Amino acid sequence: MRRLAAAVSALEGDILCPEPLAAALGNEVTALPPHARALLHPHPQGWTPAPALAAALAGVPAAEQDAARRRLTAAPPHPALAGARLTAFAGLGEWEALARWLAAHPDETRHLPPLWPRVRRGAAGEVREALARAVAAHHAGRGEYDDPGARDALFTLLESGRAAVRAWARVKLAESSVDAGNFEAAEAGLHHPDLCSALAGPPDPWQAAAQADALLVEAALARWRGDLAAATRAVTDPRTAAGGARAELWRGLVAKDRGDWEAALRGLRGVPEASPLLSARARYQEGDLRLRLGQPHGALEALTEAAGRLEAAGGSAEEQARALARAATALRRLGRPAEGLERWRSALALLPDGSWDGDAVPRARLLSEGVPLLLALARPDEALALAAAARRLLARPGPRRPEAAYRTRRTDYRVALAYLTRGVGLPYLQPFAGPATDHPDLAHARALLDHLLAAPAASGDREEVLRFDQWLSRALADPDPRRALEFTGRALDLTDHPYAGAQAHALHAEALLRAGREEEALGHINRAHALLRRVQTGLPGPPGPPDADPGLTAGLLALEARATIRDGLPTLRWLRGALAADPALAPFCPGVWREAGRALEGQHPHPEAVLRALHPGWEPGPWRVRDALVLLETAPVQTGGGKV
After folding, report:
1. Is the peptide bond before 42 cis (omega within 30 degrees of 0)?
2. pLDDT mean across residues, the chain
3. Packed helices 498-514 and 550-563: angle between N→C axes, nearest 10 degrees
C-alpha cells in the first residue's frame, strides 16, 4: 500500500497510465496484492486512485516519494514514460540531469513546457538557460511563438550575461516575425547590434546554433523577396550544419521552390526519422511536391503518413489539418471526391470554428480548400457559401496580413471556379470541357478571373502556380475558342515541369477542338501524353504501378475521342480498351463516355448506327444517343422503357 501511494504521488496526475505506474512501482501493477489493486479504479487510459488511496497521498513521506521518482528516472527509455520521467526529474529538482536527458532524447522536449514555471523557479545559471532554450525551441518548432511560456523562456535568455545566449534568443524573435509575416521586423532583428557582435565573436555551441538559425531566417526572407539564389546560398552555407535536421528540411524546401525536384526530394528524404516532428514535416512537403508534379498516388501515401506522424510527434493541430486537407486534394485528383470531402471534414474538426479572437487564417485556408471538393461533387452553391465563410475570416484583423491577402486571392479564384462549374453544368472533375455557348455564370467567372489576372504578378513560386491555374480556367470559361487559345498560350509560356506542360497542352487541344481544328488538337494531345509519361519517370516514386494523374489521362482520352469521333466505331472500341487497361481510370469513365457521347451525337452523321454497331442489342427507348452510350458502357440495366 505504501509503495503504491508513493508511486501514485510521484506521478502527480489524476490518471495513472500503465507504463509510468509500473516504472514508479518498480514492478508490474499485476504483481500488487489484491487489496492494493482494489485501490485502483479502471479508466480507459489505465486507472484512477480510489478515494482512500487519494486521501493517503498527502501523508506519503518525501523520501518514499523521491524513491519512486528515482525509479522513474532510471527506467529505460520508452515513449510512454517521457512526460512522467521529466516530471520526476523536476520533482527531484535534478535540473542538470533533466538537461542531460533532454540533450540525449530531444524528442521528449515536447513534455517540458508545462514544467517551465518550476524550471524557472528552481534551476539556475547555464542549466536554466539550456532548459529555457529547449522550451523556446519546442514552441518555435510548432510555430507557437506567442505562447506565454515561449515568450517567458526567450526573455529569460535575453537576460543572460552571455552574448551568444542573447544572440540565439534574438534569432528566435526574428523567426517569430517571419512566422507572423512581419518581414521588415525580421530583417531589422537580424541586424540588431547585439546579434551581429555575438555572431562575429568566438565560436561556442550557442553561437553556432544562433548562426545556423540566422542563416535559415535569411533564407526565409530571401524566399519572401523571390530571391531563390540568395535562399540557396543561405541554406547551403556550411555553417547551417549546426541546424541539423531543420537545416536539411530547409534545403529541401528551397530546392522545391527553385524547381530542382530531385534535389528537393533528396533534402526532404534526408531529414532523419530520429527527429519525428521534422521528418513528418518533410513527408508532408514530399506529398505536396508529388501533388504539384502530378503524382497523386504517391502524394496521398506521403500526406496520409505525414498526418499520422504529425499527430504521433505532437505536431500542431494546424499542421495536422494541413496534411489532411492536402490528402483530400489528392483523393479528388484520383477521382474520389466523396472520400476527399470526409478527409477534409476531419481536417476542419481539428481547428477552432473561427469565433475566437486568434489567427483565423488557418481555418479560412481549410474552408477555401474545401471549395474544389464540393465542385467536384457538383455542389457549386455550397461551394460559394464555403468561400464566403473563408473570406469573412480572412477579412479579420490578424498577425499574418500578407498570408491573408494571398489566401483571399486564392479564394476569389475558387469563387470563379464555382461560377465556371455552375455555368458549364458539369462537376469540376476530369474530363472538363469548355462551353460552346455563354451563360451569366460564365460571364461572371470571366470578370472575376480578368480582375485577378489584371493585378501585377506577385513574386514567389505559389503565386506563379496560381497565375498558371487562372490562365487555364480563363480559357475554360470562354465560349470563344479563339480567345481561349490566347489564354492557354499564356499558360504554356509558364510551364516549368512536365505535368504543368501536359495540363496546358491538354487545354490548348480542348480549345482547338472547339475551334474545329482536330489535326492541330491531336498534335497537342500527343505532346501532353509524352509529357505525362515523363511525369511517371521524372521523380522517383513509391513501389507500385506508374504514378501519373489518372484524371489528366482520362481527360486526354476524352479529347482524343472527340478529335477522332468521325471514325465512329473504331474510336469507341479503342476508347473502351484504353479505359479498361488502367483500373485507376474507373472513377473517370462516366465523364469520358459523356464527352464521347456528346461528340458522337454532335459530329458523326450516323450516331445511332455507330452505337448499334458497338452494342448490337441496343434499342433506343427514351434516351438520346449521348446518354445511352454512358449507360451502356458504365452501368448496363434493364428499364421499363426498353433495353438501354
Report:
1. no
2. 91
3. 30
Separation CA 644–CA 632 (nearest Å): 6
List Cα–Cα distances, 394 to 178, 261, 351, 406, 419, in angstroms: 19, 32, 15, 10, 21
C-alpha 417/C-alpha 425 separation (Å) is 12
**CA torsion sign, 620 to 622 to 626 to 631?**
negative
329-341: per-residue pLDDT in tens? Answer: 999 999 999 999 9
CB atoms within 10 A of CB 312: 12
**With left for phi above 0 and alpha for psi between -120 and 50, is residue 419 left, alpha or beta?**
alpha
Residue 613, all three cell numbers = 454497331
Q: How confident is the model at residue 355 (pLDDT cuts 50, 70, 90)?
A: low
* Mean pLDDT value across residues 192-219: 88
Instruction: Give the three-class secondary structure for 38.
Output: coil
Task: Indicate the pTM of the whole model.
Answer: 0.86
Closest alpha carbon to 623 in 615, 438, 579, 427: 615
Q: Determine the residue type at 291.
A: L
Mean pLDDT of all residues in 341-366: 85
The number of angstroms, rounded, from the C-alpha of 513 to the middle of its chain's C-alpha atoms is: 36
According to DSSP, residue 435 is labeled P
Q: Where are the alpha helices (DSSP H) in 425-480?
A: 440-454, 461-476
CA atoms of 50 and 110, how far apart (whole Å): 30
Cell of 18: 500503465
Integer angstrom CA distances of residue 33 from 1, 10, 14, 18, 56: 9, 20, 22, 16, 18
pLDDT at 97: 96
Confidence class for position 40, pLDDT limits 50, 70, 90: confident
- The answer to whether 138 and 102 have CB atoms below 8 angstroms apart is no
Least confident of 125-139, 189-203, 461-475: 189-203
H or E element: which one contains 53? helix 51-56
Residue 36 has a pLDDT of 83
Instruction: For residue 4, give the amino acid letter.
Output: L
- Cα distance between residue 192 and residue 197, in whole Å: 9
